[in-house]
Every structure is written in structure tokens, then in C-alpha cells.
Design brief:
Helix content is 25%, strand content 12%. The chain is an alpha+beta fold. The strands form two sheets. A two-stranded antiparallel sheet has the order 1-2.
Length: 144
């Protein structure tokens, strides 16, 4: 089935919807599906059911471990945690692995406040002025 209806509007439960009359049978959805969960089945539904959306898949959303905001689906987040936590260098320690279970806002805040802050740039260099150049004396200047 080709779920051309994409994701549903139900924020409490992520849904994969299909609407028969919206499907062009182009196969793009099956080609780009990262889980290879979509298959194209040639069919033509002429009843009134073709005009309404039907739920093909529905999952529990995942709540951010920091703020409780819903993001992603529980099965996907758990699968990513299983594959990366403690096994990948970026997620070797417990604090870093916990970031997988955070929404985008909390993850950025956690990275910013972490020891290895990827956003930290250190103190900027002092601007070198003409006075600094002249104070070095003629021996270090290259204008002679």
C-alpha cells in the first residue's frame, strides 16, 4: 500500500494514513521509506471508501525525558537508543546517551551545557593594532 496521506493529524498518536483517491501509484513513498515498510500494490478502489483516510499504522509517541514534549515514536527512539547508547563514541557516557531521548530543544540545551560543548568557541583573539606593531620595534618589523 502507498500511504499518500502521510502522517495523520493526531498529535497524541502518530499515524500513517492512506487515502486511495490521493495515491498516484508512482512508488516514490516505497522508494524513500527508510524502514522499507511500504510496498506498492496496484489496485483501484471505486467505492466511497476510496475518499476517506484509513489508518495503516499507529504507534505510541515518545515523550522527551526532560520536558515531556512528544516527539517521534516510542519504537524508533528505543531502537536508536539500543543501537547507539554505549556502542557509539558520541554516546559512550550516560549523559550523552540520554540526549537521544530528548526533543530538539532540550537536546540543544543539554549540548550547550555539557563539558564538551560543541558550541563553545573560547575567547576571541585580541585585535592587533598599529600601536602593537610599532611597539615591537624595528628589529621584528618587516618593513625595512
Amino acid at each position: 500500500l502507498c500511504p499518500s496521506g502521510a502522517l495523520g493529524d493526531n498529535e497524541d498518536k502518530p499515524q500513517l494514513l492512506f487515502q486511495e483517491d490521493a495515491c498516484l501509484q508512482c512508488g516514490i513513498c516505497a522508494t524513500i521509506c527508510p524502514e522499507k515498510a511500504i510496498t506498492l500494490k496496484p489496485q483501484l478502489e471505486l467505492s466511497d471508501a476510496a475518499l476517506s483516510q484509513r489508518v495503516l499504522n499507529e504507534e505510541e509517541p515518545f515523550a522527551c525525558v526532560e520536558c515531556g514534549a512528544l516527539f517521534g515514536v516510542k519504537s524508533t527512539v528505543e531502537k536508536v537508543v539500543e543501537k547507539l547508547a554505549g556502542k557509539h563514541s558520541m554516546f559512550a557516557n550516560e549523559k550523552a546517551a540520554r540526549m537521544i531521548q530528548m526533543c530538539d530543544k532540550c537536546r540543544i540545551a543539554a549540548q550547550y551545557h555539557s563539558e564538551n560543548n560543541p558550541f563553545a568557541m573560547g575567547t576571541p583573539r585580541r585585535v592587533r593594532t598599529t600601536d602593537d606593531y610599532l611597539a615591537e620595534g624595528p628589529s621584528k618589523r618587516k618593513d625595512h
